Amino acid sequence: MNRTPERIRDEWLVFRAQDGDRDAITELVARWQPRLLAHAARLTGRHDAAADVVQDSWIAMVKGLRRLDDPACFPRWAYQVVTRRSTDWVRQTVRQRRLNERVAIDAPTHEEPNNVNDDVDALRTAIRKLPAEHRTLLAMHYLDGLSLAEIAEALGIPRGTVKSRLHAIRGELKGLLELEPDSPLAGERGRG
Q1: C-alpha angle 35/36/41, rounded to 5°?
Q2: Which of 94, 110, 126 is the last residue of a domain?
Q3: 2 & 93 share domain
Q4: Three-class SS string for 21-82?
Q5: What is d(CA 50, CA 160) in angstroms, rounded to the nearest whole number?
Q6: Tens digits of per-residue pLDDT, 2-48?
Q7: Do both 7 and 76 map to the same domain?
Q8: What is the pTM of this model?
Q9: 51-74 burial, b if ≥16 CB within 10 A, otherwise e?
Q10: Which DSSP symbol is given to 117?
Q11: How confident is the model over 46-66, as pLDDT tens digits?
């Protein structure tokens, strides 16, 4: 595990929070709220739902913080809690959507992304085409900076599976970028 000054500070805050220090809890929330919101939004696909999921997750985490044996495990534990709550929200939403479909209520439509003008837009467009679980893995690793082991523990899958999925996802992204007609990478396969 990478013990950066940020991680060490988090561990210290967890120790203080476990002793009932409200200021430490407030600081933990301030430090982790943006990352956990982004994670929940990736899993649920909705920012409003992510806010509800993370709020419920914080309630559970504050109540369960004293049972966390190793403060160094806080990041993966927090992601586990948010992942479980997000999964519950998605499951409930799917059930509701099926019920609505039975009653003939139209599901909302999703708009396609705008024109692809540069490399960043091309990459964002390609990422949007990936399944939600692939986007989640990419974001946890590249945006949130979690190690393979932390992702594995947070999602309840083996470390090797995380590594192989990330490798496959990068290949899938490359393929999507090469196939996009407006992508700067289109047609590079044939170049020597």
Answers
A1: 100
A2: 110
A3: yes
A4: CHHHHHHHHHHHHHHHHHHHHHHHCCHHHHHHHHHHHHHHHHHHHHHCCCHHHHHHHHHHHH
A5: 28
A6: 678 989 999 999 999 999 999 999 999 999 999 999 999 999 988 99
A7: yes
A8: 0.60
A9: eebbebbbeebeeebeebeebbbb
A10: -
A11: 899 999 999 999 999 999 999
